[in-house]
């Protein structure tokens, strides 16, 4: 079965990896476009394919277009291509933003093309990691009904799984992804920094903490988030938590506030798990909010 031809506008890690992976799976690449001609050339060299800093030159030759620019540029890029007659009737145009709906590329609809968003639910730190991590990932799909079967086939060809999302749910969907990925990075930055207070550098601290992180992820995968909870909150161990708060108070206010807020949320998880009762939960809440355990 012949695959549709693709063009990619935006030669960063996501666009470059999508072009390369889909090319390997039999999708002809009409070309790669980028505001930076050197970026376009670098991405096209992996294929090889035509490259340009005039996206309409390659988009009008493709059946499927991916706009993989930064979120703030998506609308303007789509509008510019439309003005220069770079879209055609029946064409499918995707953007890859997790936070924004297909309405960001409304301009393609005025050209009788179909608009949709196809967002990989994956952490893509650079091109090499994108090549490794994209296959097998989940993808969130949203947009014109005519475009969604094409999106599903692309995800299937990447070995991934897809689900549909309503336009109004995109911000909440993306916020959850940020919590699970970006804020995990921030938490590791905080934890490795705390280990520096007693002499370990970040690299040593990460090596020491990584088996714990991996074990926790394994437990979540096997049992689910609530059932995987361990530690002093899950045990109702207020004395230990009071010691933590005193120690972190010496580090700084933002760190202390973050620990308190995470602790308060974790009390809710422990109650859901059933490892503490309501009275123990109230005691822990008082501790995290600044009171002492008087029980």
Question: Which terms would index this structure?
Answer:
295 residues, 8-stranded mixed β-sheet, single chain, 2 domains, alpha/beta, Rossmann fold, 14 helices
Describe this structure in words.
The protein has 295 residues and is an alpha/beta fold. It folds into 2 domains: 6-168, NAD(P)-binding Rossmann-like Domain (Rossmann fold), CATH 3.40.50.720; 180-288. 51% of the residues lie in helices and 12% in strands. The chain has 14 helices and 8 strands. It has helices at residues 13-24, 37-45, 56-59, 74-83, 106-109, 127-133, 148-157, 170-180, 182-195, 202-223, 232-235, 238-249, 253-273, 278-288; strands at residues 6-9, 29-33, 51-52, 64-67, 92-95, 114-120, 138-143, 161-164. The chain has an 8-stranded mixed beta sheet with strand order 3-2-1-4-5-6-7-8, with helices on both faces. Helix 4 links the parallel strand 4 and strand 5 (92-95). Helix 12 packs parallel to helix 14 (278-288) and helix 13 (253-273) runs antiparallel to helix 14. The relative contact order is 0.07. The model has no long low-confidence stretch (mean pLDDT 95).
Radius of gyration: 24 Å
Order of helices and strands: EHEHEHEHEHEHEHEHHHHHHH
Q: How many β-strand runs?
A: 8
Largest sheet: 8 strands, mixed
Strand order of the largest sheet: 3-2-1-4-5-6-7-8
The H-level CATH homologous superfamily of the largest domain, spelled out, is: NAD(P)-binding Rossmann-like Domain
The shape, in one word, is elongated
Whole-number count of domains: 2
């Amino acid at each position: 079965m012949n695959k549709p031809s693709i063009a990619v506008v935006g030669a960063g890690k996501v666009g470059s990896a999508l072009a390369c992976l889909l090319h390997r799976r039999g999708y002809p690449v009409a070309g790669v476009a980028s505001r930076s001609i050197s970026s376009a050339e670098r991405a096209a060299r992996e294929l090889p394919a035509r490259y340009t800093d005039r996206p309409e030159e390659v988009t009008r030759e493709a059946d499927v277009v991916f706009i993989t620019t930064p979120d703030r540029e998506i609308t303007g890029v789509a509008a510019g291509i439309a003005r220069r007659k770079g879209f055609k009737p029946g064409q499918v145009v995707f953007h890859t933003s997790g936070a924004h709906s297909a309405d960001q590329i409304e301009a393609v609809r005025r050209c009788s093309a179909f608009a949709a968003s196809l967002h990989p639910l994956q952490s893509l730190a650079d091109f090499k990691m994108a090549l490794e991590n994209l296959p097998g990932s989940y993808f969130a799909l949203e947009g014109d009904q005519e475009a969604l079967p094409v999106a599903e086939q692309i995800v299937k060809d990447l070995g991934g799984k897809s689900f549909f999302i309503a336009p109004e749910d995109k911000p909440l969907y993306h916020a959850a992804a940020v919590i699970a990925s970006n804020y995990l990075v921030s938490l590791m930055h905080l934890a490795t920094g705390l280990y520096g207070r007693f002499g370990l550098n970040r690299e040593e601290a990460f090596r020491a903490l990584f088996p714990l992180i991996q074990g926790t992820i394994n437990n979540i995968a096997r049992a689910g988030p609530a059932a995987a909870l361990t530690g002093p909150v899950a045990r109702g161990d207020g004395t230990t938590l009071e010691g933590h708060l005193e120690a972190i108070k010496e580090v700084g206010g933002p760190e202390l506030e973050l620990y308190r807020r995470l602790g308060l949320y974790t009390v809710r998880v422990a109650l859901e798990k059933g490892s503490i009762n309501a009275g123990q939960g109230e005691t822990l809440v008082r501790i995290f909010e600044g009171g002492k355990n008087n029980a």
